[in-house]
């Protein structure tokens, strides 16, 4: 998708190409490793690219600013939305209103446009709070067989280790009986990192951030001439990296849809966008992310063992592994969407 707008190669150059990912038992180093080479016949990019969202945003902004038809306004806060049969008008704080044929509500989890059109955002919030710690410690030099993307079970709980070009992102959780305030102190975070690898606390912890995880989705993505996309339309657990990627898929489907509407004026196509993307979000994004999170939150050692062995059987079977990776890489979801009219 990003190749179509000239962003794929620049992004790959700035990211970390990751040919496999794994689920592992931390203490024993047993693992199920999923090799993305199994989907090389399905995509020209059979790898996961580890790259911060801010890097993609910077590249996209640079591209947009070089397009004469695009005007970029930062910090333009929408205060009201009005629609008629021909257009939508956005009231902007401290600026003149903006009138257009359509408005895309891609303004995040707390979307003002979603609220303005009265779209219900139904779902739930997970009970656990995730603690994100960013560190320069080179985990790959100290843990045997580590990939760039690792979802780990440990005696004390669960954690994930995700490598970026210059740092590692560690998703941690509060210990039993520990408050979030206590768990996010530097002392508590460094203690948790020390449990993963002794000596990890000797490196700089650049950021500690706690956040809640939600699973929510709107009833429909099209509300007249306001179209919802990304986090404004759906939220899911980050387990598996499907959130931002799902939003990018929304954007491409919507861009193609609007191009067709501009060509023939058929507004019914907007309903097709909603049907396609909501079905994929429910079946291929939210459901898969929930399964990923539920699996890793398992505390029973026997059930963990059963889960790991089941994943190993999939990873070691080329046919089943390809099918699994098509789902987790969201390619199957794109194919599902194409079949929806």
UniProtKB/TrEMBL annotation:
Superkingdom of this entry's organism? Answer: Bacteria
Positions in coiled-coil regions: none
Q: Report the EC number(s), separated by commas if there are several.
A: 1.14.13.167
Which UniProt keyword terms apply here? Monooxygenase, Oxidoreductase
Pfam families with a match to the protein in the record? FAD_binding_3
Broad EC category = oxidoreductase
Residues in domain FAD-binding?
2-285
Q: What GO MF annotations does this protein's record show?
A: 4-nitrophenol 4-monooxygenase activity; FAD binding
* UniProt cross-references to InterPro entries, sorted A to Z: FAD-bd (IPR002938), FAD/NAD-bd_sf (IPR036188), PheA/TfdB_FAD_monoxygenase (IPR050631)
* Name this polypeptide is given: Para-nitrophenol 4-monooxygenase
- Gene symbol of the encoding locus: pnpA
